[in-house]
Every structure is written in structure tokens, then in C-alpha cells.
Design a protein that fits this description.
CATH superfamily of one domain: Superoxide dismutase, copper/zinc binding domain
Strand order of the largest sheet: 1-2-3-6-5-4-7-8
CATH topology of one domain: Immunoglobulin-like
Number of helices: 3
Largest sheet: 8 strands, antiparallel
Shape: elongated
CATH class of one domain: Mainly Beta
Distance between the termini: 23 Å
């Protein structure tokens, strides 16, 4: 019984930490850019990858990435939204692109609350425009490529860990009193 009374506060602390993990203000999102994601799809050797950092409390976003293999020189890069895959949308954040047919993408800005929600919901994309393809040569939908663990899953793991600890402690022999 003493072991259980000791474990209850530990379990509470573990569950409290699991709950606070989902309340983070900053989200790391990703975009894999390809011509096949353009509307209509393009056949191009061009490709790219971006890491997007979104602060959903401040409503700010920043982008770093790179591209290569474009058919002609890159002329612009943007975050567009709100639209899912296969649908075009307007520019919401202008980005800086450097290089010609290979280079980097960077930049960021402020989003409205609706744009923050849309970005978290997969309704924004990064687009790189070129001289030959003014509407965009490569595009990538912004998504959370690495899903986070749900609170229920983390809580379940915490309960299993505490139950395992209780089992070990219950099986341990009591010290002898001399």
C-alpha cells in the first residue's frame, strides 16, 4: 500500500508533463517540392525541400530550404494558401530565393489566425517560380511530416511505466529488521 501511495504523485507528474507537451507554441513543418504537385502537374527534374517553423501564438512563420534541377532560373518563391493539394491559391508570404536553377529559399512573416489554422491543417504550400514557368515549377504542400505522439498514447505509456515500477517494487523482498 505504501508503494502505491508513493507512485500516485509520480503518475500525476508524468501525466501533467504529457499534457503540457501538446501545448507548445512552435511547430516544425515540412514541404517536399516537386513539379508533380503543380497545378497542372509539370514534368521537371526540379526538386526542393523546406523546413517551416510556425509560432501559432505569435502568428509568425519562417522558412529555410533549398532547390535544385530547375529548367530555368528561379524568379520568385512564396507561401500560398489557403488551398489543399491540387488547388491553387494566392500568395500569403513572399520568400527570398537565391541562386539560378539551384539555390536556397528563406524568409518569413506574419500570418492571420485563419492562415495559422490553415497551415496547421495542411492548406498552405511553398511554390518556386521560374522564367519558363511563371505560375511555378515546383511546389510542396506544408505538412507535419513527423507526427507527434498523442496525449493519450503518452499517458498510456506513463501508466505502463508506473505499473511496471509498482510490480518491481512489490516483488522486491522487504529488508529484515534485526
Amino acid at each position: 500500500m505504501k508503494t502505491i501511495r508513493t507512485l500516485v504523485p509520480v503518475l500525476g507528474a508524468v501525466l501533467a508533463m504529457a499534457g503540457s507537451a501538446s501545448a507548445l507554441d512552435t511547430h516544425t513543418l515540412y514541404a517536399l517540392l516537386a513539379g508533380s504537385q503543380e497545378v497542372p502537374p509539370l514534368s521537371t527534374p526540379g526538386q526542393g525541400f523546406c523546413t517551416i517553423t510556425l509560432d501559432d501564438v505569435a502568428g509568425t512563420v519562417s522558412v529555410t530550404g533549398s532547390f535544385s534541377g530547375l529548367s530555368t532560373t528561379a524568379t520568385a518563391a512564396h507561401i500560398h494558401g489557403l488551398a489543399g493539394p491540387g488547388v491553387n491559391a494566392g500568395i500569403i508570404i513572399g520568400l527570398t530565393e537565391t541562386g539560378g536553377t539551384s539555390g536556397t529559399i528563406s524568409g518569413g512573416g506574419a500570418l492571420t489566425p485563419a492562415e495559422v489554422t490553415g497551415m496547421l491543417g495542411g492548406l498552405t504550400y511553398v511554390n518556386v517560380h521560374t522564367t519558363m514557368h511563371g505560375g511555378g515549377e515546383i511546389r510542396g504542400q506544408i505538412t507535419a511530416a513527423v507526427p507527434s505522439l498523442s496525449r493519450i498514447y503518452v499517458g498510456g505509456l506513463a501508466v505502463l511505466a508506473v505499473a511496471g515500477l509498482a510490480f518491481v517494487l512489490a516483488r522486491r523482498p522487504s529488508p529484515s529488521v534485526a
